[in-house]
Structures are given as C-alpha cells and as structure tokens.
Write a structure and sequence with these properties.
seven-stranded mixed sheet, 636 residues, 27 strands
C-alpha cells in the first residue's frame, strides 16, 4: 500500500486504527509536505503494558514519527547472547538470539530468546552503581529484577510518584558486570594451543580443532608453545584456560569443571585460576586416582566470568540454557541523575526480559507507528503527515465511556501536536476541551509557538485539571538558528512562549536540544542560555547533545563543511560510530551542564517526573546551494 494511491472514493486504506482516508493535500505554504487527512476510529491510545513510560495514555492528532516508549540502557551496555558471549545493545539486530529468563519471581533460569524489535531515542540518564563496581546508564523508568520483584530506577514511597524503585542497599538479581572478551594476541594463541596440545592430544570438538588449526600457522615449524612458561602473562593464562576447558572441561548442572592428570598442567591450571581470583574447589576423580579436578564455586556469576574472560571455542560446553540465575545477587550502591539526556536503547524479546551487564532487565515493547503505516521513519516522517481531522469529536466520545478512569494523558510523546500544521487544522482546542470536560489531567511537549494561541484555554482548564507544559529551545544565536532550523520559531519567540506559559500560571520546563559540539556547548554559551531560561521562569531544564541520523547527517556535513570546515575532523571523530557523539564527549558535557543547572536553579528533580519528554528530532539544515557532493557526504 502506498499513500499516493489512496484518494477519496478509491477504497478504504488498510491502516489499523484509521477509519479511512478523506483526501491527500499539498499546499504551497508547506513545501514538499503531503497531508493525509483521515477519519480515525480512535485517538485515545493506551501505552503497551510492557512499556515503562510514566503515563498510560496518549493522544496524537498527527502521526509523523516512529514510536513513543521509554528506553532502557546506553548503547555500550553488554547483553548476554545465546552463545554465552556478550554484545553491546546498540549492535543487536532483530532476529538475534540472546538469553532471557523463565520462572516465577526471582526463581529464574536462563533460556534463549529472540530479539523481536530494536530501537533508540534520547532520554534523561541515570547511573546505577552496584557493590562490585557494575555501572549501568539507563532511563528513570527502566526496571531491574530485585529480590522482591521488579524495581524502577526512580520513584517515591508516597504520592502520585509512588512505585517500587531502586534504593541503596537493595538487592538485584544477577552476577554483575561482564568482563571483556580477550583479544587473540600471540600470547593468548600460544596459551590456547598449550592447553589443548600439551598432553599430546587434539580436541575432538570441531570448534576447538578449527581454532587450533587457525592459530598454528602463527608459530611456523616451532613447537615452543608446548612449553609451560615459568612466568606466564595474563594473555597466555586466559588462552591456556580456554584450551584446557575445550580439551578437558565441562559445564553440567550449573557446575563448570576442568580435570587433568598431568601434575605440571594441573599446577598451571590452578595458578591461572588463582591469578584471576576464581573461587573453586579441588577434588580427585573417582575413576582415575591420579586426576585432579577444579570446580568453580560462586554460581552463575563465576561461570559467566570464566567464559567471558577465557572465551573457549566449543559451543555446547558454553551453553547456559537452564542455568539458575535467581540465586545470584548484587547490592545497589548508588542511583544518581547525570543531569543530561543521552541516547538510550531498548529491545523487545520473546521472554519479556534480557540480561544487561549481568543483571536481569525488563524490556519495553516497540510501537513503530510510522513504519506501520508503510512509511519510513526518516524522510517520510518529515514529508508524509497523517492528520486525524475528526480527533476532537472521537476523543470526546471515548472520554464519555463509563470505563474511562480519568488517567493522565500525554501529548507530544510521539509527534509535536503544535507543529505548523496545527495552525491550519486547529485540532488542539477541541482536544484540550474534551480532556478538561472529562476531568482528565494533561501534559504537552512542543517547540512550536502555535501553542501560545491556546494558553488562555490551557490556563482556564488548569483550574479544573492538572496541566503541565514543556518547550524545546536549542540555542540563542538567531543566525545559527536560521541556518539549522529553517521554518521553526526563533529562540526569542520560544522564550516568550515560556514566559507566557509561566505568566498564565502553568508549569513549564525546557529541553535544550540539540547542543552542538564546539559551537553551542561552551560554558559561556550554556550559561547565557540558562540565564535566559531562568529569567523566562522555566521550572527545569534537560540537555540533549546533537545526534545525527541518516538524512540530517548528510545535510549537516555539507553545512559544517561550508561554514565551519575547521570542525569537520573533530565531528568526524565524535560521530565515527553512528548517530550519537562518543561517550567521552557526553560525559564531559554532563560535567559541564550539572553545575550550571544547579547554579540557575534549573536542575531536574531527581525523583519520578510525571512530565513527558518526547525525543526532539534534529532538523536537517536547508541547502544553501547545490546538494552535497560525494566528498561532503563522506565527511561524517
């Protein structure tokens, strides 16, 4: 199905939740944009049960982007794969096999599960630190499995924010941070071959044999690797344990063991285990009196540490299917707000959970709304806008149902309800009245000053229902703003919107998004902006560094090359791994932003925040000349 084929009278489009297309409209005032006016069956949307956003209901009169969920963890967070190894959550793909859990309460066992969906956005970031030094950067609404059930990262014991949440000293289920998989250095390879071949045998396992045959050419005709070094380094010791495990080790019924009958090999094995502080018992073998065996103790956490530290080759020996994980615990040492928003990732799995940095972690459920309508979430997001022209009437009818409990409704969680099209369609006044007339609390996020039109209405209804607002303001430099955000209201206009909202007695927070590295991120620039925001009366501020998606990325490269060519190499390094600036820069920005926010009284509250925060899109700069060349496209 493609939208351009749908016209009034030509049949009803097969779109879930939409009653039918009325017409598709293009207007000179919205160059390049097509509005698809539809009759919706429903506009009051319930958030999926598995989602962890701090609200259950949304209203989106316009559909123009992908999803509206709260996201989990930072992209570098390792996730336990079904082969026993781990991979950063940002690198996962739909169809990958990972480990989830099955069981009741904390009586959990590892089971393979499939990644069903994978997505990302930007959210307020928190760092959860455990007693062993494990640190996980995550969103406030993410959940971990605790000794007494699932716990949100933040929350309260009282009031509207009441919910189970992490507290210092509480226990979480999991073995803690994953160790890094060893590099295949020459020392590691020598140790692996020694562990496997020292006794004159060759592992019968195909995986191990293939690895050994791959390593052997590195040593030519020499067999020096067969000798046990007097003072082996850590690389050799890791490889030795891996080779020995592939030859003579096993993992059964939750116990990982290695047995050998040569004294010098056994001594080297014990020394390697001691080197890495493994906990183990030493026992004899009932069938072979001369054989010694080491059996790891410490449960699933030690087993995972051994597999990740040594990286054995034999797949079936490293299978963790059925491993008990509920008995392994870590203690929460601290939960701290980082003071800025970061790109966070989430997945949907068949079991509803996954293992992130060794801890049992609840997942969300993706709702990729724009792609669900057969649009892509990039260019089509900007140029194919679905307008639910009957939204106020349908919403009013839905709110009159006896089953409606007057729960908080968030707007701006998927697309901006005050985008420019609202000036034409005027859907929001009817939506606001319908919510207020039914006694339903509401919140709105926007960077469109069209919202000023409805401030008198919002002020009026705030006497009857709770109302909160949020505005996006990226920078003060008007010339830079014209180049980067053509067609959007000026910074001063948005500051005036904050003032008007506060003058109307409405709570109003601000998203500083995006912060441009080396252009708008200096202490002086941020301090000047925060001064203006404080003067305007903003309740709080959250900060989002620039992220560059395909499309915006190419135009930004072209713009940067023309106006700030000296910054091209620095941006190339910052965004070498994808859409988001590297972790070092984000950490530096957080250290810079925190004190400034506190100085101006704009720091976000550290507890549960019921206000919504949608992901601001980075606008593609309008071309100021010919399209970018292939060389310019390569820059970033």
């Amino acid at each position: 199905m493609r939208w351009e084929r749908q016209r009034a009278g030509e049949g009803e489009p097969s779109l879930p939740g939409l009653d039918g297309l009325v017409r598709s409209v293009r207007s000179p005032e919205f160059d390049g944009v097509t509005f698809h006016e539809v009759h919706a069956k429903s506009v009051l949307n319930r958030v999926a049960e598995g989602s962890q956003v701090p609200f259950r209901w949304t209203v989106n009169p316009y559909r123009g982007c992908s999803h509206a969920c709260t996201y989990c963890v930072e992209g570098s967070t390792p996730v336990l794969m079904a082969d026993g190894r781990h991979k950063p959550i940002s690198e996962l793909k739909v169809g990958d096999l990972i480990f989830g859990t099955r069981g009741h309460g904390v009586a959990r066992r590892l089971v393979p599960t499939e990644v069903l969906a994978h997505w990302t956005t930007v959210r307020a970031a928190y760092r959860v630190t455990l007693d062993d030094g494990t640190a996980i950067v995550t969103g406030p609404d993410h959940r971990f499995l605790g000794a007494r059930g699932w716990k949100y990262v933040t929350g309260s014991k009282l009031g509207a924010a009441q919910r189970p949440h992490l507290e210092v000293g509480g226990d979480l289920v999991g073995g803690g941070r994953f160790v890094r998989t060893p590099d295949e250095t020459l020392g590691y390879r020598a140790g692996y071959l020694c562990g496997m071949l020292r006794s004159g045998g060759f592992a019968a396992e195909a995986d191990a044999a293939a690895r050994a045959l791959r390593y052997l050419p590195d040593f030519g005709s020499s067999v020096g690797f067969m000798r046990l070094p007097a003072e082996p380094d850590a690389h050799w010791s890791r490889g030795f344990l891996a080779g020995l495990f592939d030859l003579a080790g096993a993992y059964r019924r939750g116990v990982l063991s290695i047995a050998h009958d040569e004294t010098d090999v056994v001594d080297a094995m014990f020394a390697a285990l001691d080197r890495f502080s493994f906990e183990y018992d030493t026992v004899g073998h009932r069938r072979y009196p001369g054989r010694r065996q080491a059996r790891l103790t410490g449960g699933a956490g030690e087993v995972l540490r051994f597999l990740h530290l040594t990286d054995p080759a034999v797949a079936w020996k490293r299978s963790l299917d059925g491993t008990t994980i509920g008995s392994v615990r870590r203690t929460v040492a601290s939960v701290e707000a980082l003071g800025l928003e970061l790109p966070l990732f989430d997945i949907t799995t068949g079991t509803g959970d996954f293992i992130a940095e060794g801890m049992v972690s609840h997942n969300c459920f993706a709702r990729n709304t724009h792609t669900y309508l057969d649009f892509d979430a990039g260019h089509d997001f900007d140029t194919q806008v679905v307008v639910k022209v009957n939204a106020p009437q349908v919403l009013a009818a839905q709110l009159k149902r006896p089953s409606w409990q007057r729960e908080h409704v968030a707007m701006g969680t998927n697309t901006d309800p005050y985008q420019r099209a609202e000036g034409r369609y005027r859907l929001m006044p009817g939506i606001i009245r319908a919510l207020a007339d039914s006694g339903t609390p509401l919140s709105i996020l926007s960077k469109g000053t069209v919202m000023a039109r409805d401030l008198p209405l919002l002020e009026s209804v705030s006497k009857d229902v709770p109302v909160s607002l949020a505005v996006s303001i990226a920078l003060l430099d008007r010339e830079l703003q014209r180049r980067l955000e053509p067609g959007t209201p000026s910074p001063q206009a948005r500051l005036d919107l904050v003032r008007k909202a506060r003058a109307a007695g409405l709570p109003c927070s601000v998203l500083v998004a995006p912060v441009l590295p080396y252009l708008t991120d200096s202490v002086e620039a941020l301090d000047a902006l925060f001064t203006q925001l404080a003067d305007a009366g903003a309740d709080s501020v959250t900060v989002i560094p620039l992220h560059l998606r395909p499309g915006a990325r190419e135009w930004f490269a072209s713009w940067l090359g023309r106006h700030h060519p000296q910054l091209v190499p620095r941006y190339k390094r910052l965004y070498s791994r994808g859409a988001y600036a590297d972790r070092g820069y984000r950490a530096l920005l957080g250290e810079r932003v925190g004190p400034l926010l506190r100085r101006h009284g704009l720091a976000r509250e550290t507890g549960y925040n019921p206000r919504t925060a949608a992901e601001p899109e980075v606008p593609a700069p309008r071309a100021e000349g010919p399209p970018p060349s292939s060389e310019q496209l390569r820059l970033l």
